[in-house]
Amino acid sequence: MIEMKALTRRFGATTAVNGVDLFVPPGQILGYLGPNGAGKTTTVKMLTGMLEPSGGSATVAGYDIRRQSLDVKRNIGYVPESGALYQSLTPFEYLQFVGQLYAMDEKRIGRRIEEFGEFFELQNHLQQTMDSFSKGMKQKVVIASALMHNPQVLFLDEPLNGLDANAALLLKKIMRNLADEGKTIFYCSHILEVVESLCDRVVIIHKGKVAADGSVKELKTMNQRSSLEEVFSRLTRSEDLGELARAFSRRITSESKEEDE
Ligand code: ATP
């Protein structure tokens, strides 16, 4: 469960998150969408205890993000968009380290590492240092590290990044199963087709404020649009994107012609 009340974060003159009120119940996959710079990562950083709010309050898994930051961290899993691994370690060493941070017992840690190795087809790479890993292999280890301790709430920022089609399908099914078991999943992504097929509810944030909140079906009906992509575009971009694309292409091609002449 996640609850935000007037949650706000300012950076100097910029208000990145501006009075967001949201309640995300257990068992829900929430798609948190917004254009670049809308405030998604800033929201997640506050909820995961990485950034102090400038105003408002929030609880995650029932714990206050300001006063009970350590309890929040014990009860969440977080897949950030980038940069979460110690690449000089092997997956085995890294996951063991993460498990120890969560005070898991050694037997359980060993079992989990074996299971993850099998699920993500990394069993033959568990003892290799990760500096030689592909992007997708690293991402699988980051996902495994977020799930190690069976957290109540999961924050996933573009978790499918770099995954092949099979691994992506597997992760989507895992997310659905975890939500069905009562976990809360806060899912940030720009891949709207995935959001549309996976999320129970979608929140679109624009300039730090909630611009829309509902199921995909509700948002389409409310905005009289047939796809989530069109709803997103209507709420976050005032120009006609088709016309913008044509103008841009015309400019590029005419410049090339001028250079050729
Ligand atoms: P993207 O989709 O591009 O990842 P986002 O929705 O995650 O974007 P944020 O990273 O939350 O957006 O940024 C929201 C706003 O806050 C932006 O204007 C950004 O420049 C600003 N911002 C974020 N972090 C900082 C910081 N550490 N210092 C100053 N400004 C920041």
Structure, explained:
The structure is a single chain. Helix content is 43%, strand content 23%. By secondary structure, it is α/β, with parallel strands linked by helices. It has a single domain, classed as 3-Layer(aba) Sandwich (Rossmann fold). The strands form two sheets. A six-stranded mixed beta sheet has the order 6-7-8-3-9-10, sandwiched between helices. Strands 2-1-4-5 form a four-stranded antiparallel beta sheet. The radius of gyration is 20 Å and the shape is globular. The protein starts with a strand and ends with a helix. The mean pLDDT is 93. Residues 11, 14, 16, 34, 36-42 line the site of adenosine-5'-triphosphate.
What keywords describe this structure?
10 helices; 4-stranded antiparallel beta sheet; 6-stranded mixed beta sheet; 10 strands; 43% helix; alpha/beta; binds adenosine-5'-triphosphate; Rossmann fold; single chain; 23% strand; globular; 261 residues
Under the CATH scheme, which architecture would be assigned? 3-Layer(aba) Sandwich
Average pLDDT, all residues? 93
Reading off the top of the CATH hierarchy, the class is best stated as Alpha Beta
**Count of discrete structural domains:** 1
Q: Reading side by side through the largest sheet, how are the strands ordered? A: 6-7-8-3-9-10
Unreliable spans are none
Strand percent estimate: 15-25%
- Derived from helix and strand composition plus strand pairing, the structural class reads alpha/beta
How many distinct helices?
A: 10
Helix content: 40-55%
The count of β-strands is: 10
Small-molecule binders: adenosine-5'-triphosphate
Helix-strand string:
EEEHEEHEHHHEHEHEEHHH
> CATH homologous superfamily name?
P-loop containing nucleotide triphosphate hydrolases
What's the overall geometry? globular
Distance between the termini: 63 Å
